TrEMBL record:
The name this protein goes by in its record: Uncharacterized protein
Lineage, opening ranks: Eukaryota, Fungi, Dikarya, Ascomycota, Pezizomycotina
GO molecular function, one term: S-adenosylmethionine-dependent methyltransferase activity
PANTHER family referenced in this protein's UniProt entry, alphabetically: HEPATOCELLULAR CARCINOMA-ASSOCIATED ANTIGEN (PTHR14614), PROTEIN-LYSINE METHYLTRANSFERASE C42C1.13 (PTHR14614:SF132)
Origin species: Talaromyces amestolkiae
SUPFAM superfamilies, A to Z: S-adenosyl-L-methionine-dependent methyltransferases
Pfam families (alphabetical): Methyltransf_16
GO cellular component: cytosol
Amino acid sequence: MVYYIRFLKTPRTQIAKPGLVSVSALISITTDLGDAFLAEDVALQVQLIDAGDTTQTNTSTVLQENNTYKWEAGKRELAISTGLFKAPRKISRVVLAVGPKTASTLDTDLSDAEKIPLVISGWSAPFSLSQNGTAEKVIERRFVLQNDTQLRIWEETGNNIARHIWDAALAAIVCLQSTINSSGRCSMPRLQSRFQAISKNHFQVIELGSGCGVVGIALTQMLFGCSVTLTDLAEVNDIVARNLQIAQSATNSETRFKVLDWEEELDAEITAEPIDLVLVSDCTYNADSLPALVQVLDRLVQSSPDALVLVSLKRRHESEAVFFDLMRQSALAMLEESVHSLPAAYSEKDRIEMYLFGRTA
């Protein structure tokens, strides 16, 4: 499993004396669920960046970049401090970035599963260099896709797992990229054929349980003429809106968000257009919600009989096997499957499963 830099205390500015400031923060490195800490030593680098030009990472003004820290196995937190430095007059707001020292860039490379690091970097929200300037309680992830576009996604720093990125989402993005861009053999040829057969103005996609929206937003940055509707409970609305604001959608592609409770009736607007693909990423961990999830999938495919369903999951409990039984009972057949690996501690690999479902008759 990959591990994520998290802010336990977001960056804060302290002014020691006129013209000299320091920035401090408290971080942790945990799994996607926050239920385990990284149990091996990792060298980290810390950068303080001008918030005025952070959209272009290759040209950003870096105020400090030689701060090196060591996360040690057994730790649960690590204090970060830049030490005193002279604040440039022309720079009033900055961003604190933390990531693995071994990487040439703090951006996480998602172009290939083999390039994904064990530790995913994080960027703070912009904050003031004035006394007690404090960053908002969010953290940004920055990824590089195969088409060299930057995918930027905000998460919350709290304990609400609905507003975090989960491991299976990263594998889903890698799978979608390889399926869309592969010119040779592909692990999911049926899904690839669906992408290649796009002939209308918009390829219609629905994502269930989208959380902060990373998979659906990534797809609109990879695919021309793609319309993605992210769906989840209302609690994710703010973080999704923030991510939609900075999305760099491909030509004629768009993303929107709709509230969808699996226990309630489908909004007619969601099924107004024929659906080509339904995305489900890391939504099978809660066995109690599986009947409602499969019921929604069944309704969506009933409204669009040719729709395909791509499920990305990391098995966390034996109870998740119920999902496959329920899919069979709903006559949603498994058409294709593949496995993608993510790095894990001590050079191990973590298994992420991908399944493609659809109606066969």
